[in-house]
Amino acid sequence: MTAIERPPHAPPAAAPHHRRYRRGMSVFEAVMVALQGLIANKLRSVLTMLGIIIGVASVILTVALGSGASQQSQEIIRKMGTNVLTAFPNWQRTGVVNNGLGSANTLKEEDAQAVLEECRDIAAVAPECSGRAQVKYKQQNTSTNVVGCTPDEFDIRNVAMAKGHIFTKADNAHRARVCVIGDQVRDTLFGDNVEPLGKILKVKKDNFEVVGVAAYKGSTGFRNMDDQIWVPLTTAMHRLFGQTYINSISIQAKNENVMEDAQREVEQVIGRRHHQPPGQDPDIRIFNQQDLADTAKQQSAMMTMLLTGVATVSLLVGGIGIMNIMLVSVTERTREIGIRKAIGARFKDILNQFLIESVTMSLVGGALGILLGTLGSLALTNFVHWPTLLTIEPVVISFIFAALVGIFFGIYPALKAAKLDPIEALRYE
Q1: Is the separation of the CB atoms in 129 and 236 below 8 Å?
Q2: CA–CA distance, 403 with 236 (Å, rounded to integer)
């Protein structure tokens, strides 16, 4: 009997199912199966991913809030000036009573000039004489801070002019009765309908002409520059407060890298001028703005790390939820696993399938968490007016961490599924 031959153009016989499984399910196929499972069980999927969603969103929100707070604190410090040191005289005692920092009358205007001339890391200095005073314009009056200074004060403290100009060195030399007023003082005394330039204010018993209005600056938390007026240093010392000493010196270093060197130089120069023995504590105290900025940055970083750690717990809880659901899924699909093994699915095929499903669930939850965290950050900024700063690093890190959570908590269910005996699995009802 002659064998019937297949025509040469006929298609090859269909490969048996077990051969198809021998090549294994591709990653794309496994992802599509996982997505179909998520869509088929929407409520269960959302509840399972909720921990991942909340965890990722919390990480993004906390880091954005921490970064925003840090940026705001740095901005507040920058408002006080750039690379600024402030020197105050030390305290003095009256009997057994300590009168507090700045009570000693040891700083002179000449000390500030010596600092500028002898310290190589100093760019500018501005001696200050300040005190509270009653300021009046017609029927309006306010009690505010009056700062006597040189024109360099405005550059050192980053004070910009909204109207008019600052007083000059000539005004300081002639004890001129001119002043620059802060935005809050302008609002209190003149409102929005009166032009303040050229108007005469009464400060204590002297008349002062308004030559400039400082731009709105906002409170720095240490000094409200909007609620003060500036007058020439000699005018404040001799006309208003009747003193021959100054209350402080604002000192600007050449850059932020020489702040500590500049501080040592200032202490040495003033120590020599005040005839202090070597090794004795200086009779001044210097506040280093860079130290303040570093402290604020460290505090913000510590708070952000604490909040991020708390938020990370949500990711771990979400991972446990995924593991529980995957174990339930293994139980529900026991017979399916048995059939797949019977037609050729290998250990690694089943392992990869369930592991990819776990990771897919985590990544979808991570993506939704990123969306929620981003929208929440924008909402806090635009509606609650909390400072936030979104950066790409926490988004990427939280997304990768979500994937790692999916892998870690998906391994056990995947191994359990892959180790099922096909005979026992086929008998499962």
Answers
A1: yes
A2: 66
